[in-house]
Request: fold
Amino acid sequence: MPGSLSKDAITIILVTAILTWVMPLIISTYTLTVLIVYGMLGLSLGLIWGFGGILCFGQAAFFGLGAYTYAIAAINIGESTVPMILAVLVPAVFAALLGAMMFYGRLTDVYLGVITLVVTLILFKFINSTAGPQYVIGDARLGGFNGIPGFQTLNIPGRPDDYIWGDSYFYVCAILLALVFFLVSALLRSSFGRVAVGIRENETRISLMGYDVRARKTVLFAAGAAIAGLAGALFANWSEIVTPSLFSLGQSAEIIIWCIVGGLGTRFGPVLGAAGLAYLKFLLGQQTMIDNTLITGLILVLFVLFLPRGIVPALASLWKVSFGRRPLGRIPQHRRMRNRERING
Amino acid sequence: MDLTVIILVEMLYAVASLILISAGLAVVFGMMKVINLAHGEFMMMGGYATITAVNLGVNIFLAMLVIAPIIVGLIGLVVERLVIRHLYGRLVDTMLATWGLSLFFIGLATMIFGNTTTGISTPIPGFAIGNYQINGYNFFIIVVAVLLLVGMLTILKSTRAGLIARGAMQRSDMAAALGYSPDRIYMATFFCGSALSGLAGAVLAPLVGLVPTSGGAYIAKAFITVIAGGPSLIAGLFSSAGFFGIVNQVFTFAISPVIGEVALLLAAVVLLRLLPQGITTKFFKGKL
Reply:
């Protein structure tokens, strides 16, 4: 990653300022808020999958857990500051336990995917079956399939009657996304982040160099879950109801699609993929001719086949080819090599 | 006494339906190492093929056992030629592409059949054992599952086609050197896997209300059964389906169906933690 952290900070502030100024002129802030929340969710998987190489099929589990934690705590406490903190901590702790179980058992790729998938399903099935009055946490009824409506939404810390909603909630979400983006950048620039990328590239080599791969993967996994939990809490505040569909496999699938389309191994790709595809889905939802799911599926298949690295890396390399400094005549040779590989392989 | 018989039949039925659900995926994933997340949708399409055929006046057994597998197998063939063929050996990419396919098929089914529940009645009447009523169709599923296992074993073990397929999966370059086309063999194997998924969906169709999203209910179960089974195709399928089916039914009868499902999933997590490469790396080693 070229440049320095302070340069990153300036870029983030500038981009955030421009986008929060321009975008509300095009799209309503209500829609933009949820796009930002999805962007944060995409970033959480982009961090652990794109930089840590951990393919988690159950990122929706942490998203839903954050939303449910917020809703339950908000009903019991009646003020939103502590619930927001809890909504970050609970998924992080849950992910740390789950991650420790998986990584200390040295499970990899497919098996990791299956376990995270199964855990999401367990949560989904369990929450779905909690319709009865006996399922109560404090004052909050879990409500089964109907979810939990009517909890305290975000307020100014310490003043439960001053709600943050509408346009100001949009700005809060935008600033939080910028902050999370900055923290992710800082994490990736630290030695922890560089070792994480090393683990993605070659796990054996890093562990032979004396790093504790299992502990580092667990911590990274928990950090991703914390971001997803924050996104969940913000989503709960936006929709003002939490339902079991937050845990559904479709939700998990969508997060993975965002990352693939946006571009793995970049910080900006998953955010862009999430916001872009969510907006596309919003637009498609307004027509009834072609089914929405069909198009989502088609996009995923086409991207895997023709643009497996995603939009942002493809644009970046296009930029490099067009404007970057390079000795002439190199690129065609590379291309020939790649073609030959494809024929042989 | 009557209750014991009922519980036994229910357990056999649970094991049999797990075998049915997982057989197609076992061929596609276990042999070809293609993670087919559209497996559930192949089953869903098998169900719709059956219902459509029955509504057109075809005999239900003909529709379930012949028409549905062929139709779904052909769909699988098209999918293999268009998408999967380009992705062999890229585990994560096949997984993502087939996930996309699964969404695509859900959307397609929604557009064609609408987002409503359809179904047909079971062709075999129930009967009473003592004070309990039992579904006669359960026996049919058990019989189909047994025939399926025996059939797969026979084809893979004692026919030339099975031998060639197994050889090509192990060393495709060697198979090519001996004059067989791995491309064709992969295509045929994927056809068989999809046809098995279609058969499973068709046979289970009378028991469930079919909606375009019903595939999702099967995929996780099929997935964990095949992965927990491990490298041996038939022994793995049989042992893990047996284990999960029994766990599921014990908890269903002891507590409730939801807890039964959760217990199955928890058992899968624990099993994968203890035997991450599957049951057949420890037991039944080297069997088919």
Notes: The mean pLDDT of chain A is 86.
